[in-house]
Amino acid sequence: MALPTLFLTNSSTILNHVGRYLKHACWKCGNKQPIAILCSGCGALQPISRPTNYFKLMGISEAYDIDLKKLKQRYNMLQAKIHPDVIGKEVRTPNAPPGLLRLAESLSSEVNHAHDVLKDDMRRAEYMASLYNVSASAASPTLLIDQMVLRDQIASFHHKKNAKKLSEMRHALTKRFSDCSELFGKALVERDSNQMASLLCEMRFLTSTLDELKGRMNTLDIEE
C-alpha cells in the first residue's frame, strides 16, 4: 500500500520552502541570507528555530542510503561551529544575541543525537519510518520460529572451538540484514508502508539476534 500524498506535505516542508525566500541579516557580519542555523558568510550560529528533521539538521539529503563519510564530515563541521566551547567566546562579541550559549548547548546535543541515529542502519530505518508514521509490523509465525531456532543454536555454543560456526552464523545474519536494508531503502522510495513495516520488524529481529551472537562470542573470547 502506497503512502498517501498527505504524508509528503508537512509543516517542516512548507517552512523549508518559505525559508528560501525569507532573508535575515546575520547578527555578526550583517550578511543577508535565507534562514539557516549558520551564516553562509561568516559561519556564525544564528538565533533561529532549528530544523526538527535530522537530515535537514545535518545538511544531507533525506535518503536511507547515505554517505557515512559525508555525514561524519558534516557532523565535525557543525560541532566546530556550534559547540558551547566555541560559542562561549562568541557571546562576548558585541551584538551577540541573548540566549546564544543556551541555544548552542541544546543544538550541540541534538546534533550529537542526530549523528548517532543516522550513522546506524537500524536506527536510521526506524527514524525514517517514523517520519511517515510507519511502525514495525507484528512478527510472523515463521519469523518467531526462526528467532527461537537461532537463539537455541547460539545458546548451544559453549566452547572456543565453536568459533568457526559462530563466525559463519554472524556472516550469514549480517548478509541477511544487509539484504533487508536494501529492500527497506527501495520500499521507502516507493512509499510502500506495508513493506516498510514488515522489513522493519525483520531488521529488529536480526539486530537483536546479532547482538546476542556477538555477546556469546565475547563471552567465549572469540574475535569478531
TrEMBL record:
SUPFAM superfamilies xrefs: Chaperone J-domain, HSC20 (HSCB), C-terminal oligomerisation domain
One matching Pfam family: HSCB_C
Domain called J: residue spans: 53-131
InterPro entries: DnaJ_domain, HscB, HscB_C_sf, HscB_oligo_C, J_dom_sf
Superkingdom of this protein's organism: Eukaryota
GO BP terms in the entry: [2Fe-2S] cluster assembly; protein complex oligomerization
Single Gene Ontology MF annotation: protein-folding chaperone binding
PANTHER family recorded: IRON-SULFUR CLUSTER CO-CHAPERONE PROTEIN HSCB
Family: Belongs to the HscB family.
Protein name per its UniProtKB record: Chaperone protein dnaJ
Species classification: Eukaryota, Metamonada, Diplomonadida, Hexamitidae, Giardiinae
